[in-house]
Amino acid sequence: MRKSLVIIAIVVALVGVTVGVGVGWYREMLRPAAPSGDTRIVHIVEGSGSAGIAELLEAEGLIRDARAFRVMLGLTGLRDRLRAGHYELAPTMGARAIAEKIASGEIATRRITIPEGLRLEQIAARLAEAELVASAGEFLAAAVPATVADAVEMPLPQGTLEGYLFPETYDFTYDGGADAIVVRMVRELQSRFVTPNREAIAARGLSLHEIITLASLVEREARVDRERALIAGVIQNRLDRGMRLQIDATVQYALPEHKPRLTFEDLRVQSPYNTYLHAGLPPGPIAAPGLPSLMAALQPAQTEALFYVARPDGTHVFTHTYEEHLRAIDQIRGG
Fold it and tell me: What's the structural domain count of the chain?
């Protein structure tokens, strides 16, 4: 009898030790994977399952052990609550915190600034580099009027949405996709410019497309805000007189690649965007204008100037006659 009690005591002790070791191991495996480390974006693919998610997190160095993570999911009821998406996670969080983040559906966002004056291809490249779209090509395919036709209440162009993607700093989710980004940027144009200025746009004497096109020329020509309305005024004066605009930026848009300096041969490139050859505005915008340029195109300055030439500091000399324009060029080059 005494021998049996001893055996039982030994077994209980061994079980206790085993359980204690197991609990200790379990708790240890749920601790943060590292005392420090940068956050990273992890993509939980739809249909991964708890096992696949655990293995991914272990491979990324975000948790210590996939088995302990799966046990924790079962004990806490989080196993069936994990949601697909991109999540911002760090090895300092701990397994439970990581699981709760994924279960919350609090997907990651990426802040990105789209500067004024970029072409559609340049915007696409920035978004692809930030991994917000699968590729620049995917975004360009989405940047067409059909993508936003049911999402906005404003006239849309034919062809692409060049010039209609409002330059701004955005917080985009990684899971939205190209279509959602295009819609968001065109809606921003509508809310920031079109809707607040509907009456002025209607009274301007130009279509919305022409206003945005003119604004894109101002955006590419102006370097200081105080001159935007003046440049718009010069462009408007030349339009009213049937003069060719002769804006280098339109030629750059027509060329297959940007050149630091245009040649006389470049100025003869056959394109409807070449304002050295064709009078009037080009067929559409040549870049994404910001709000100051849009407002300048909507309300150009009243001026008699028909010409302007850039100084080295980016400001311009505005003149009324061609002779004055030539003298201004000579003075700038001579200075």
Answer: 3
Q: How far apart are CA 296 and CA 303, in angstroms?
A: 13
Residue where one domain finishes, among candidates 195, 225, 250: 195
Question: Whose structure tokens read 């000579």?
Answer: 330
Q: How crowded is the C-beta side of 324, counted as CA atoms within 13 Å?
A: 10
Q: 37 to each of 87, 90, 136, how far by Cα in Å?
A: 16, 7, 31
Q: Enter the tokens of residue 67.
A: 């088995």
Length of the chain: 335
Q: What is the pLDDT of residues 226-277, one digit of tens each?
A: 999 999 999 999 999 999 999 999 999 999 888 888 888 989 999 999 999 9
At residue 335 the predicted structure's pLDDT band, cuts being 50, 70 and 90, is low
User: Could you tell me the end-to-end alpha-carbon distance of the chain, in angstroms, rounded to an integer?
Assistant: 114
Range of the domain at 116: 109-195
CB 286 within 8 A of CB 316: no
What are 116's two structure tokens?
A: 């004024």
Count other Cβ atoms within 10 Å, centred on residue 175.
14
* Confidence check: pLDDT of 333 > 90: no
Query: Which residues are 318's β-sheet partners?
Result: 308
Residue whose structure tokens are 């709760």: 100
- What does the alpha-carbon distance between residue 309 and residue 319 come to, in Å, rounded to a whole number? 9
Specify the 3-state DSSP secondary structure of 308: strand
Classify residue 138: in a domain, yes or no: yes
CB neighbours of residue 112 within 10 Å: 17
303, 233 in Cβ contact below 8 A? yes
Other Cβ atoms closer than 10 A to 81: 14
Question: How many angstroms separate the Cα of 328 from the Cα of each of 116, 248, 317, 334?
Answer: 28, 18, 7, 10
Q: At what angle do helices 2-30 and 95-104 cross, to 10 degrees?
A: 60
Distances in whole angstroms, Cα of residue 185 to Cα of each of 14, 30, 42, 128, 158: 66, 42, 26, 16, 17
Amino acid at 151: A
